[in-house]
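Notes, Module 5: Reading structure tokens.

Key idea: the token line is not a picture. It is a compressed description, and you learn to read it the same way you learned to read a sequence, by spotting repeated patterns. We will look at two proteins. The first is printed below with its tokens.
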Amino acid sequence: MKTILSLAAGFSLLAVLPAMAAPPVQTVKSDKGDVIAAENGMTLYTFKKDESGKSNCYDECAKNWPPYFAGASAMAEGDYTLVERKDGKKQWALKGMPLYFWVKDAKQGDATGDGVKDVWDAARP
């Protein structure tokens, strides 16, 4: 019985770990080449006006470029780090640079935000 309980506890812990690890990202093909996308397949972007570990995209900017938010239990892993926003929410970052979506992308593989105003870049693997 003790072994069964230990196994059950171990499986329960494993079920929790993915929620605390790096963000669920994937590499997808776009007309701009391979890009990093969130679990939903939508391309992620970085903003040249951000600083490592700090977002400078708020208000109107964040309406057009929604942050890639992390859950409360998320933890940094490898190149994927977390940035705390002014409101206390956590945002995923790649090598310290906060990650965002672009409201004009409609489907997986869209990378229409790449190069916008020369300050937005599609995140690359």
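Here is the second protein, with the sequence above and the tokens below, as before.
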Amino acid sequence: MTRPPIALTCGDPAGVGPELSIKAHQTLGARLPFFWIGDPAHLPDGTAHEEIHDPMDAVHVSATALPVLRHPFPVPAQPGQPDLRNAPAVMTAITRAVELVQEGRASAVCTNPIHKQVLQDGAGFAYPGHTEFLASLAGVKNVVMMLACDELRVVPVTIHMAVKDVAGALTEELLEQTLRITHDALIRDFGVETPRLAVAGLNPHAGEGGKMGTEEITLITPVVERLNRDGLHISGPRSADTMFHAQARAGYDAAICMYHDQALIPIKTIDFSGGVNVTLGLPFIRTSPDHGTAFDIAGSGRADPTSLIAALNMADTMAKARTT
């Protein structure tokens, strides 16, 4: 039985999503069928695309053109100039992709970048970002953001908040939830039979025995010890400044970090263009390129498709893992 193709959302049509989608298809072609949900009028002029009416049509259309599942927008898109009137259609394109994967008509959802401010101003978007919106659509409360490339997987426990607020936001419940979701996803979606998780400390030198902070002693260590007693394989808390060189990375399958930059600096240093954003804990697969709408270069042809191609490849690999 042929596996359903991947649903790729259009993202903000004034951003780099349309041109990246064409470039991704030119690279992947029939090898990795996916279909684009959006308005064909928003694709770059002269590009090979073909409208489909059923997602499965993408399997044969992909050999010669980008398969497009038409999703009308109210106004034309001008590269680099987002239009608030198009914001509701951006949101409903995401909703449509989720519905298709929930119905089994798509094997995964891959999302092109959105612009939160545009959605908030134009459609009353009430979420911090894609991840929380997708969790709401799926009816899931707890999800985890992973950034992944071939050399490293990182998971920040806290995400978009000021550094001064991180210590107050960290709780044993949040850390345990993040560790368990990551552990289960590595088994289910990445084929890691016995996941090894490395936990970073919050403070320099992992607190240095309490001299530079006590969160490692009072919060992180108790969670690590408790989950190890439950049969998980977790090391730490480790000093974050020694976790990410090649020899250290060989000893774990994912690094659990306490805050945004602690996780994203190493992965963007190792593979700036090829990182993928993965949402763990959803009942379906969701990946995304690890960059924004890039309004400043939209329509110029300069956008790099490496991250989107990696996101589509990772979604395909995860879909295979779930069906074996």
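Summary for the second protein:
- The chain has two domains: 1-141+289-324, 151-270.
- The chain has a mean pLDDT of 95.
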